[in-house]
């Protein structure tokens, strides 16, 4: 049978796919890419790559950079992704602090701002703090609000389908806050909201300890204990955004584990409550018997909740983050000892390599993913940015 | 910029995609499909649909059927998927029975065979029973072994990456059986092996109660209690095939729940152990106080294990299957009452509409999925079938 002609629609679709392939090849490289490399990475002829690179440059997605210094012969033309063509905001709205980080579309953080808050801070004041850190970031970076294509926020609490907080245990006046609506009124672009621990898990998947794992559990060990899942490489929200809410199970001691550690006999008078649990881990490291016993109990409490998630999804890896993960040298071996006997197949256990801004970093990755699927793949820009 | 020519490779790929689209449109329809309908469903011109239908017919994937009786004017040409062009085998290898079902590529079961076994049956005898049911099916249907493109088996126990049983609680001489190797020596085509409960979950997802749900939990309530997960529409195996193994958790009573029900005071002397639990559910339905109390306890035991999975993945739906699900009228309301207080968000709870052959049905779906991705999408046939 004869080959028939492809239709115009087919060709336009192929061309858009190829343009996106070139864009992705540019985005994937930290260094400028020559046309020859670009053609090879995008699986195109050099002529097609040149064509599409010129088009992407004209559209503001790419920029040609001067030839590499010291090139011999005819210098190779080189291009890079124009990461500064747009920005995203990542927010971390927790019980004890509010943090904003502004990044370009390459994920490079160009400004951060934070405000301390408390679990008992009123809803209005916490939202005001959110507005303040957003404004601070934009001002510091000299970026206008319409240049922010997507804002992603991680908040303490269970987050419903419309970006509202349906249940908050850690912040007292936070249940019912329509967070996506609040941010939507202030942000020019799209707004995404999810649980903070879930965005920490995303950060581990994309930048941290879970980069290689298809299925992993992230455990936040801090003043509260929480968890989130990566399944099939993706953050798992569940049907109603309540996946990973192990703390509610009466048969696991997560709801009280950190508090019990902080109130154990190994904490001297004068150590503030917020620092008590970390103090106990330090004392355990130094060999204090009461602290060692309290840490053993804490590891056992963590393991009981963790074992239910491990039995359910059989992850390759468990990543431990949060304030207490700074003492992973003390905590991880004990957690491993307690977890093993509870598992059919014991997962790897690793400390997070990311710092305390991982929720905001996860929010930035999420926002960039949104930009990629919404705008980059369609060769479009948001309405805001005109 | 001008539109450039698509390459020959692009066009060949497009053509193969379009042929697969036509094949899928034929497969999706229980009735023969006219060329006009085919074009519309595959998103092609009528000429292209005619072209590709002729090609698929020549290749043996499709067959033209006579015009619909009573057509007026020029009769519309109609085609159907040639489901009989290949076969798949689905096996259910349990503690108490071994079942094989042979189906054509449309999933139509053309033969089944079964053998009773016992938990204490030796490994050799159980494997022999497997060989016997396979032979019976082929003989009954008059199908030759090389016509079976793919064999999929669900077995009791945890299944490792190479189709070996790494751990079996329900069948005593079954841990360590290299089941995929055994089947591979006897079956001409590809061999797939997974845990039986997982294939029951797949059957619910594709044919049963979970068709509409992205995330669901299937609970097998029988002589043993087990569970499997559907996440993002897909069966979730976990990293080492141990997902859903809730029964091992010491904090859940699944390992002993069915046994406790079967041994409760409501069972008269003379009722065999295998029928005791079902008997108790019947007595509870009739209002027997001891039976009601035992069923309440059983529902509470099920709910405790189920709650850990619900808290972990937040499913939309829980499907209850297995022998005791025949008494769903007695069991489900009690399970719902016990589960609710343990959940942040309580999933729907439904009884399986599928019969006791659901594992084999799930195995058939899995085998057909394998045929689809391995052979149909590439327009190829297995080596066996020549």
What's this model, at a glance?
The structure is a homodimer. Chain A is of the alpha/beta class.
CATH architecture of the largest domain in chain A: 2-Layer Sandwich
For the biggest β-sheet of chain A, the strand order reads: 6-5-4-7-10
Low-confidence stretches of chain A: none
Q: Can you count the helices of chain A?
A: 11
Strand segment tally of chain A: 15
Q: Quick one: biggest sheet of chain A?
A: 5 strands, mixed
- CATH class of the largest domain in chain A reads Alpha Beta
Shape of chain A: globular
Please tell me the total number of domains of chain A.
Answer: 3
CATH superfamily placement of the largest domain in chain A: ATPase, nucleotide binding domain
* Largest interface (CB < 8 Å): A-B, 53 and 53 residues
* Straight-line distance between termini of chain A: 50 Å
Radius of gyration of chain A: 24 Å
Oligomer: homodimer
Portion of residues in beta strands of chain A equals 15-25%
**Series of H and E elements of chain A:** HEHHEEEEEHEEEHEHEEEHHHEHEH
CATH topology of the largest domain in chain A: Nucleotidyltransferase, domain 5
User: What is the helical fraction of chain A, as a range of percent?
Assistant: 40-55%
Class from secondary-structure proportions of chain A: alpha/beta
Polypeptide structure, described:
Two copies of one chain form a homodimer. Chain A has 386 residues and is an alpha/beta fold. Chain A has three domains: 8-81, Orthogonal Bundle (Arc Repressor Mutant, subunit A), CATH 1.10.10; 86-201 and 358-376, ATPase, nucleotide binding domain (Nucleotidyltransferase, domain 5, 2-Layer Sandwich), CATH 3.30.420.40; 211-351, ATPase, nucleotide binding domain (Nucleotidyltransferase, domain 5, 2-Layer Sandwich). Chain A is built from eleven helices and 15 strands. Chain A has helices spanning 8-28, 35-42, 46-58, 123-141, 179-186, 196-207, 254-262, 273-285, 289-313, 328-339, 358-376, and strands at residues 33-34, 62-65, 78-81, 87-93, 97-104, 109-116, 148-155, 158-159, 165-167, 190-195, 216-221, 225-231, 234-236, 317-321, 348-351. In chain A, strand 5 (97-104) and strand 6 form a beta hairpin. The radius of gyration of chain A is 24 Å and the shape is globular. The mean pLDDT of chain A is 92. The interface between A and B is large, with 53 and 53 residues.
């Amino acid at each position: 049978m004869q080959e028939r002609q492809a239709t115009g629609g087919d060709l336009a679709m192929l061309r858009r796919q190829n343009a996106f392939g070139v864009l992705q090849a540019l985005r994937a490289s930290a260094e400028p890419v020559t046309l020859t490399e670009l053609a090879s990475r995008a699986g195109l002829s050099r002529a097609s790559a040149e064509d599409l690179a010129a088009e992407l440059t004209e559209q503001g997605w790419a920029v040609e950079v001067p030839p590499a210094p010291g090139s011999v012969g005819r210098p190779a033309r080189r291009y890079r992704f124009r990461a500064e063509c747009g920005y995203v905001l990542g927010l971390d709205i927790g019980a004890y602090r509010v943090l904003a980080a502004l990044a370009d579309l390459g994920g490079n953080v160009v400004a951060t701002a934070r405000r301390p808050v408390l679990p008992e801070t009123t809803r209005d004041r916490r939202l005001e703090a959110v507005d303040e850190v957003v404004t601070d970031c934009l001002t510091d970076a000299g970026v206008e609000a319409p240049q922010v294509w997507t804002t992603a926020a991680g908040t303490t609490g269970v987050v419903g389908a419309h970006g509202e907080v349906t249940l908050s245990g850690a912040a007292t006046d936070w249940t019912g806050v329509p967070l996506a609506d609040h941010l939507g009124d202030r942000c020019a672009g799209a707004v995404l909201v999810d649980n903070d621990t879930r965005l920490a898990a995303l950060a581990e998947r994309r930048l941290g300890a879970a980069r290689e794992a298809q299925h992993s559990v992230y455990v936040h060990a801090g003043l509260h204990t929480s968890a989130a899942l990566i399944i099939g490489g993706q953050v798992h929200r569940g049907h109603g955004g309540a996946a990973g809410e192990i703390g509610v199970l009466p048969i696991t001691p997560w709801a009280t584990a950190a508090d019990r550690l902080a109130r154990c006999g190994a904490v001297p008078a004068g150590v503030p409550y917020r620092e008590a649990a970390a103090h106990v881990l330090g004392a355990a490291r130094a060999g204090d018997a009461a602290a060692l016993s309290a840490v053993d109990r804490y590891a056992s409490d963590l393991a009981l909740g963790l074992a239910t998630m491990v039995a359910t999804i059989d992850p390759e890896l468990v990543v431990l983050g949060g304030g207490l993960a700074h003492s992973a040298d003390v905590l991880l071996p004990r957690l491993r000892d307690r977890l093993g006997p509870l598992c059919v197949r014991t997962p790897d256990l690793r400390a997070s390599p990311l710092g305390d801004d991982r929720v905001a970093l996860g929010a930035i990755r999420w926002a960039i993913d949104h930009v990629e699927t919404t705008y980059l793949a369609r060769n479009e820009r948001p309405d805001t940015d005109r």
